[in-house]
Amino acid sequence: MMEDVQLEEIVVSAGVSGIMDHLVWTLCDEGDGILVGKPMYSGFAKVCYERELRIFNKSKPGRKIRALLIANPHNPFGKCYSRQALLAYMEFCEAHDLHLIADEIYAMSIFKTPSNKEAIGFHSVLSIPNVGIIDPRRIHVLYGMSKDFSSNGLRLGMVISRDKKLVEVMAGLALFSWTSSPADLAWCIILEDAAFLEYYLSEHQRRLAEGYEFLAGILDNLGINYVKGGNAGFFLWIDLSFALERPAHGGEPGIEEDMRLDQKLIRGGVHLAAGIGYQAEKVGWYR
């Protein structure tokens, strides 16, 4: 059974990074860990201790895993988790006494193009009936206006949770990181203007699709590999490993060669987000 989100289940703060920090401080004690898959949004590294699911089963002494953190849509892949995958995550969290944190900041930045007709659509974890699967109090959703509304500098983020005690604690922490009145007013005006909201989101998604097809076409023509089938966000995950220099001592390129390529791109006036910041499993990948 799905339920509407209630006002008392929302805590607002100055940006999603800030509200995520409050959430982690509320859920975790010093030394606790949070599970997150790789590659991941670079901002997650500041609040996560461990980054591989297999670590969970190693039962490291003194280390308690508190939560599983996902970005849906995924950053940097630009894809959405299937409903089945989200249900599996819920079951996993319930079985292992974990919280499920879903960063859904790109929820409205979804698009369709001729090349991604089979791409999985967006499903919020709040839209999936979870009776008998997971305690609803274990699910916490992060959202903000920075990405879907192209307003990164206005700093307005929120957490949605049905855990009353957690909301009470986070509301207290939020007193020290209020969002600004201009940001608060601007988003209220936007959300209450149904006609503008419909136009804006439609145009936003149309332009994202146009940009994706344009860039994907260039990469295809150049023979540059990338994660195909993306349908969310404003980025692609591309493989530039072919441009890495070979180490002087022989062997395969590593982080040093990866960073050297990054600096070479910057000197050439090209700025890409290096995969090392996203905990990429292989060198040479960029967002």
Automatic annotation (TrEMBL):
Transmembrane segments: none annotated. Keywords: Pyridoxal phosphate. InterPro entries: Aminotransferase_I/II_large (IPR004839), Ethylene_sulfur-biosynth (IPR050478), PyrdxlP-dep_Trfase (IPR015424), PyrdxlP-dep_Trfase_major (IPR015421), PyrdxlP-dep_Trfase_small (IPR015422). Residues 8-275 form the Aminotransferase class I/classII large domain. Coiled coil: none annotated. This is Aminotransferase class I/classII large domain-containing protein. It comes from the Eukaryota. It comes from Drechslerella dactyloides. The lineage of its organism: Eukaryota, Fungi, Dikarya, Ascomycota, Pezizomycotina. GO terms for molecular function: pyridoxal phosphate binding; transaminase activity. PANTHER family: AMINOTRANSFERASE CLASS I_CLASSII DOMAIN-CONTAINING PROTEIN, BIFUNCTIONAL ASPARTATE AMINOTRANSFERASE AND GLUTAMATE/ASPARTATE-PREPHENATE AMINOTRANSFERASE-RELATED. GO terms for biological process: amino acid metabolic process.
